[in-house]
C-alpha cells in the first residue's frame, strides 16, 4: 500500500505538510526525528489524515493534486479538520449534521474512519 498523508505541526500552528510513502509509521517517525530537512524546523508533527492507494502512481498523482491550487481548496474543505471548542446554539434540538459534528469534534484524536462519508440509500431504509 502507498499512503498520501497530511501532517500538521504541533509547535507552529498552521504549518502543514503533505507527502507520500509506502511505510507511514516509519515516515512519521522520520519527520518527528528531524530526518527531513523540509519538516525538521517544525517538529513535532501529528498525523491529520491519510489515504491508502494500492497503486504507487495513483498515490503520487493524488499528492501532486493536493499540492495544486484546486487540490488545496479540496483539502481545506475535506481533509484538514479543525477542532471547534464551542458550537453556536441555534435551537434546543440540534440538526443531524450538528450532532455528527459535535460527536466528531469532541473526540481527542481523529482518523479517516471517524469522518462521515454520507449515508447510502440502503442505510436510510430505501431501496438502492
TrEMBL record:
<dbReference type="InterPro" id="IPR000305">
    <property type="entry name" value="GIY-YIG_endonuc"/>
</dbReference>
<dbReference type="InterPro" id="IPR035901">
    <property type="entry name" value="GIY-YIG_endonuc_sf"/>
</dbReference>
<protein>
    <submittedName>
        <fullName>GIY-YIG catalytic domain-containing protein</fullName>
    </submittedName>
</protein>
<dbReference type="Pfam" id="PF01541">
    <property type="entry name" value="GIY-YIG"/>
</dbReference>
<feature type="domain" description="GIY-YIG">
    <location>
        <begin position="1"/>
        <end position="82"/>
    </location>
</feature>
Amino acid at each position: 500500500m502507498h499512503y498520501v498523508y497530511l501532517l500538521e505541526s504541533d509547535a507552529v500552528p498552521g504549518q502543514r505538510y503533505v507527502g507520500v510513502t509506502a511505510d507511514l509509521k516509519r515516515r512519521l517517525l522520520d519527520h518527528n526525528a528531524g530526518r527531513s530537512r523540509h519538516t525538521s524546523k517544525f517538529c513535532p508533527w501529528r498525523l491529520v489524515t491519510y489515504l491508502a492507494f494500492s497503486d504507487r502512481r495513483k498515490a503520487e498523482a493524488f499528492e501532486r493534486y493536493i499540492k495544486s491550487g484546486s487540490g488545496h481548496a479540496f483539502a481545506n474543505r475535506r481533509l484538514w479538520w479543525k477542532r471547534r471548542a464551542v458550537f453556536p446554539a441555534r435551537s434546543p434540538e440540534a440538526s443531524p449534521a450538528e450532532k455528527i459534528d459535535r460527536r466528531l469534534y469532541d473526540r481527542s484524536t481523529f482518523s479517516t474512519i471517524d469522518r462521515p462519508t454520507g449515508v447510502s440509500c440502503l442505510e436510510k431504509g430505501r431501496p438502492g
